[in-house]
Amino acid sequence: MRQDPGRTSARLADGREIIYFDEEAGRVPPPDRRDLPPAEPECETRLDPLTGDPVAITAHRNTRTMLPPARECPLCPSTDDRLTEIPAAGYDVVAFENRFPSFDARTPPVEPYVDGIELFERRRGAGRCEVVCFTSDHDTAFSRLPPRRVRTVIEAWADRTEALSARPDVEQVFVFENRGVEIGVTLHHPHGQIYGYPYVTPRTTRVVASAERHRAATGRELFADVLAAEQKAGTRVIRQGEHWTLFVPAAARWPVEAHLMPHRHVPDFAALTTDERDELADVYADLLRRCDALYDAPLPYVAAWHQAPVRSGRDLVRLHLQLFSIKRAADKIKYLAGSESGMDAWINDVPPERVAQRLRDAKA
After folding, report:
1. pLDDT at 364
2. Does the annotation mark 191 as catalytic?
């Protein structure tokens, strides 16, 4: 299946970009009829002197929309009597600049140090954050999208990854979906987000360091060896195709966690071939249906697509999905308490092999 959606870019009333990804070409985007003030984001990053990790400070995000009723959803198509973030009366997949971004190039300059103290470094929170709406249907979920729509979403992810990676203020692109109120979503409409970070994230920094050590010691690629080991063991493999393998990692942190990894080294979505994208659409949708079948109810999850940094480590970090859920039983949630939150020392009560078997047995 080759996907070539119509791509149309336009501007919202406050100057933010919106991009339509249509399965049929020919869209003429309508104007945004809202009276919006210009976007004035306040984003900054401060460096933790103890860990070296950057922390984003975003004063404007505390006023973002929080779980409105369906009739007030800002991600549904616009109607004559209700104008939303999407001016069109209907759409397939849409990406647009977040109205409440964590990072934004329009942020004004900041002083280089907090309180003028050099120990507390501060930088302008440049970068870009986008929302990706998977469908105009408010009441569905990614797991129930038709195959063609899943494929269109993947094309949108690849397009936005390539576009954000070309920006001088972006160092890493992160594609993700938060699903379920237990996870902390603020909007029910099926959607995800894309962050263009102005720095390489702490997790990826650690992964790059591990991959460098592994290459120095063995001369091999860490991700290739991890994948080969999981395939050889087989005990945690859920599904293996021609281009992708789906498995529960041996050292899973979460009570439900699955990784999806391509068989060749691919740094990001933009580098995937047509065949790899086709199989990804099938395997990923299958995973989401299996997750929902675990407890016969929609599973709250984070689908985190890890990609290589834009300007470093591209031969070390392989595109891969880390999907995880806080549900450790149908009626129990894993809370990040003292050990995980305070010390970043994880404790998982559910053996990864058991989760893998349950996901293999799950019937969509």
Report:
1. 57
2. yes
Q: How high is the pLDDT of residue 3?
A: 57
Report the distance separating Cα 250 and Cα 229, nearest Å: 10
Residues 6+ apart with CB under 8 A from 292: 141, 143, 298, 299, 364
CB 167 within 8 A of CB 261: no
Integer Cα distance of 213 and 219 in angstroms: 9
Query: Two tokens at 252?
Result: 């899973």
pLDDT at 5: 65
CB–CB of 324/178 below 8 Å? no
- Element (H or E) spanning 222, and its range? helix 222-233
Distance, CA of 363 to chain centre: 25
Residue 1: pLDDT band with limits 50, 70, 90: very low
Distances (CA, A) of 345 to 40, 182, 340, 348, 352: 38, 22, 5, 10, 17
Which of 41, 300, 59 lies closest to 184, judged by CA? 300
Model confidence pLDDT, tens digit, residues 13-71: 999 999 999 999 889 999 999 999 988 889 999 999 999 999 999 988 877 878 899 99
Q: How big is the CA angle at 296 (ends 334 and 254), to the nearest 5 degrees? A: 25
Mean per-residue pLDDT over the chain, rounded: 96
- Tokens 């004559």 correspond to 80
Nearest alpha-carbon partner for 123 in 207, 185, 199, 17: 199
Q: Write out 276-305 in H/E/C secondary structure.
A: HHHHHHHHHHHHHHHHHHHCCCCCCEEEEE
C-alpha 116, offset from chain centre? 35
Catalytic option among 138, 188, 189, 191: 191
296 φ/ψ sector (left φ>0, alpha ψ -120 to 50, else beta):
left
Give the span between the Cα atoms of 75 and 145, in whole angstroms. Answer: 17
Averaged over 142-165, what is the pLDDT? 98
Predicted TM-score (pTM) of this structure: 0.96
